[in-house]
Amino acid sequence: MKANKRYALTLGMLALGMPGAHAGELTGNAEAGKTKVAMCIGCHGIPGYRTAYPEVYHAPKLGGQNVTYVEKSLKAYASGDRRFQTMHAIAASLSEQDIADVAAYYAAQTAGSKSSTLK
Ligand code: HEC
User: Fold this and answer.
1) Which of 40, 56, 57, 117 has the lowest tally of Cβ within 10 angstroms?
2) Which SUPFAM superfamilies does its entry note (predicted)?
3) Residue 26 sits in a domain of what CATH number?
4) Predicted TM-score of the model (pTM)
5) Closest residue (by CA) to atom 27 of ligand 1?
6) How far apart are CA 64 and CA 106, in angstroms?
7) 44 C-alpha to center of ligand 1: Å?
């Protein structure tokens, strides 16, 4: 039933005129991901940041996370398998290519990365 849910989600995104999810293997591009994390930095880029709404939540650090883990988490938020209101809205607005790029970007970060302030 999971597949049906994804299919429905894709149709829903197309209906809303958002970039649709593409089938098949995608290769993440960390360079492209760099420009796509602009909307993530607000929560994930501030050390120890806690969201104020709907409750106080700690936004986890993404830099250096495993690429598959980031991808799976975003897809789980998008499909609703993992529940978190804000992340659901954000993940559902990303195309599969966006997810692959963003995951590649975060996975490429290390403590010594020049761009580590974006974690
Ligand atoms: C409004 C604040 C906010 C924004 C913006 C935001 N996030 Fe999140 N994100 C959170 C919070 C809070 C959590 C923890 C939710 C939970 O407990 O499941 C989270 C969880 C995650 C996780 C799971 C991490 C883990 O350790 O399990 C990933 C991956 C993630 N976000 C990626 C992103 C990406 C990529 C973007 C930008 C496209 C983004 N987030 C934008 C607040 C935000």
Assistant:
1) 56
2) Cytochrome c
3) 1.10.760.10
4) 0.75
5) 73
6) 6
7) 7
SS3 of residue 113 by DSSP: coil
Which amino acid residue places its CA nearest to atom 31 of ligand 1? 87
Phi, psi of 93 (to 5 degrees): -90, -5
Neighbouring C-beta atoms of residue 37, cutoff 10 Å: 20
Match 């929560």 to its residue by tokens. Answer: 43
Q: pLDDT class for 78, splitting at 50, 70, 90?
A: very high
What mean pLDDT do residues 35-40 have? 91
Q: 35 pairs with which residues across the strands?
A: none
Q: What is the mean pLDDT of the chain?
A: 78
Check if the beta carbon of residue 95 is closer than 8 Å to that of residue 19.
Answer: yes
Domain that holds residue 76: 2-118
Total number of domains in the chain: 1
Distance in angstroms (rounded) separating the CA atoms of residues 57 and 86: 11
